[in-house]
TrEMBL record, chains A, B:
CDD domains: AAT_like. InterPro entries: AspAT_Ic (IPR024551), PyrdxlP-dep_Trfase (IPR015424), PyrdxlP-dep_Trfase_major (IPR015421), PyrdxlP-dep_Trfase_small (IPR015422). It comes from Ornithinibacter aureus. GO terms for molecular function: transaminase activity. Keywords: Aminotransferase, Transferase. The keyword Amino-acid biosynthesis does not apply. It comes from the Bacteria. This is Aminotransferase class I/II-fold pyridoxal phosphate-dependent enzyme.
């Protein structure tokens, strides 16, 4: 058996002696890794400096102080946000401008506001405020976005996991849960290039989510379209038109869509958006008026002038892609070089978004993260993509290659691959 | 009796014939007013364009993308806000920087966040979340800020009014309510140049509010220091140091202070602040972390560079004063010219803030507002400064002279004075 062939024989098919030799190899490789004294970070889906630089013309905008309607953007008012900005992003998100609110800098805050409104007031079709329900449950596709889950946990909302598949949440599983349990008031969906697996919800899955019977009259889909425009290839996914689908299915108030420019312009100083049925928008603003006199319209005007048009946003995203795509290619290359064919790792090759989802053998994820940490490579804690941070199979690791430089991604991912190989070899050679 | 004397004889001391003649005069004056076809607006406490212009250097800031600590302000993170900005405003608000959070653009939003946290989680000294209390009551000094009251009303929180006096809330009345009723969980105080009466809470009143026994262990003072630096005269009021007073009195978690640059830089695009005990700050951030990854730090850096220092803020406020003080003088001059000595109106001559509080004869405020509206002068609805918009005596009108030009203030206020005179004369001559 040549060395080349050995390298691609699945570990599970190797003899104890071969495995022991592989383990020793990986121990040596890991020791060498540790000696390099790396300090690298693949933890969070943050844009890199080079990406942020793309938007630095914002720093000296806006020119002037009024928008196209003559509004002095410096003063109070205008809870729905500037019209031009809403029109620009309505086109990009496939909604009507009057179904879209442009808010502050954080879509997470808008999600929280909507959740709080439902807790304290209920939705427009709620029998009572959710705080007065004996139990509130959300369906959580996993792996998913940790901040979605921690927000729910902070309010004691129960979470029921369903698998996130390549075409979206396991819709049969969702249907069964939602149909029978009136405590199920909502679900999270990241429809486009989902965090972390990169899945894109298909039209068919979206249609079933929009139309499925729900025991709760006020069942909500929190449709977090955070990566709607964040393509990594020329094959640009189109997000399903959930508002129209839900409306056509007789559940117009079910979906509430969120988006932002956090990963288009500045992560801390972009503009967030909320889209929903006109009635939901009215309800949202009806509550929001007690909490705000209006969003930062200067920042709205800044963004209007920076982009110029919806096409300007698309062109801008192409420049992000030029920076990001090589980093994602580096992740794939490093994992492929070290792990392909060994049967110990599967990972996504996303066509967009900010993450790669890496599955290692059951029971190995926490070990991989610990090994990486000891070698100076920070990874998101194992389990972070699951409710309460608990991955029942301890196998999923979220990789975020956007923030480090390309060379750092290459170095870090080669190290991660070594950690995976070592952890898998340890497990396969463990006595008992 | 000369005409001059007649003009300053209280209406109540005049004969029926004299009153009838006065009524006719005012009717003629009002008819002439209506013929002018005015369109003037004294409704809201908005900065004028000239005031906003003072901050227009913000439009081309920040220079650079990092703060003094090397933080890239464009990216995610930093829930407490930039250190330099917190230090600058800590000095101005007489708090420690580590007791101060610099947030988004709206202090109203921060107030709402704190209220919602207490409703859904309770405070750190609450026996249970406020949502689980049978009743929650707030003490509301009146006249006060309408948005404070509508926020409470939106959550069904009961409001008990106490008079706002020249030295602050009627503290004996507050003490009696707070001592005996465990449902009383909080109160609003605008300590400096209060909306609308311009009162300044004295050190003595603040001390009693800080130390008074409360039936509720988690009684909160929402200390909205919106006008802390907004002086109209050289006699600059110092806000009482409520955090220290409360701490010394053994109630460190009682006050939560709010402030913002909404009326310092841009009303829609400033920076808001929250100050409280370290434990309260930790509790606030502990909840807030689920709703936000951090505030707009680019706007923080913009403000740091614009002001330069705390003294830069004070210097900037002096320029606001130059614009605002003549408008407030015009309000006083117009009311004095028409109404002084007639015994039908009292108004404040505030040393700061954004409002003049005008009291007309009981039962006349709504009539005055209606007359003004018909003459093209928009005033805040009568009763707006009271819970549920109900002034039990229908006598208070809030005047907001900041937004119109000086000449417009003069014209509008002469008109308002005519409306007051007419309404009072109508009432005094009414049969029955």
């Amino acid at each position: 058996m040549s060395t080349d062939t050995a390298a691609t024989t699945p570990l599970a098919e190797r003899s104890p002696e071969e495995l022991q030799a592989y383990l020793e190899e990986q121990r040596e490789a890991y020791a060498a890794l540790c000696e390099r004294g790396l300090t690298l970070d693949l933890t969070r889906g943050k844009p890199s400096s080079a990406q942020l630089d793309l938007s630095d013309r914002l720093l000296s905008l806006p020119d002037g102080i009024t928008d196209a309607d003559g509004v002095d953007v410096r003063n109070y008012g205008g809870l729905t946000g500037l019209r031009e900005l809403r029109e620009m992003f309505a086109e990009l998100l496939w909604v009507d401008p009057d179904q879209l609110v442009a808010g502050g800098s954080s879509s997470l805050t808008m999600m929280h506001d909507v959740l709080v409104q439902h807790l304290l007031h209920g939705g427009l079709d709620s029998p009572r405020p959710w705080k007065d329900e004996e139990k509130v449950t959300f369906v959580c596709p996993v792996p998913g976005y940790d901040r979605h889950f921690t927000m729910l946990a902070s309010y004691g909302i129960e979470m029921v996991s369903v698998p996130m598949l390549a075409d979206g949440p396991d819709v049969a599983a969702v249907e069964a849960i939602v149909r029978d349990d009136p405590s199920v008031k909502g679900m999270w969906v990241v429809p486009t290039y989902a965090n972390p697996a990169g899945s894109v919800v298909t039209q068919e899955v979206a249609s079933r989510l929009a139309s499925m019977p729900a025991a709760a009259s006020d069942f909500r889909i929190f449709w977090d379209n955070a990566y709607a425009l964040h393509h990594l290839t020329a094959d640009e996914a189109k997000s399903a038109d959930i508002l129209s689908l839900a409306s056509a299915a007789g559940h117009p108030h079910r979906p509430i869509m969120f988006a932002s420019t956090s990963k288009i312009t500045y992560a801390g100083a972009g503009v967030a958006f909320l889209a929903a049925s006109r009635e939901n928008i009215a309800a949202y603003l009806g509550h929001q008026q007690f909490a705000s006199i209006g969003p930062d319209k200067v920042n709205h005007l800044r963004h209007i002038q920076f982009f110029g048009s919806a096409q300007g946003v698309r062109d801008h995203m192409a420049r992000h892609r030029e920076i990001l795509a090589p980093k994602f290619a580096a992740v794939d290359a490093a994992l492929t070089a070290e792990l392909d064919g060994l049967g110990i790792a599967e990972w996504t090759r996303p066509a967009g978004g900010y993450f790669v989802s890496l599955d290692v053998p059951d029971g190995c994820a926490a070990r991989v993260v610990a090994l990486a940490k000891a070698a100076g490579i920070a990874l998101t804690p194992a389990g972070a993509s699951f409710p309460h941070g608990q991955d029942p199979r301890d196998r999923n690791i979220r990789l975020a290659p956007s923030f480090p430089q390309l060379a750092e991604v290459e170095t870090a991912m080669a190290g991660v691959a070594t950690c995976v190989a070592l952890a898998a070899a340890e497990q396969l050679t463990a006595v008992g």
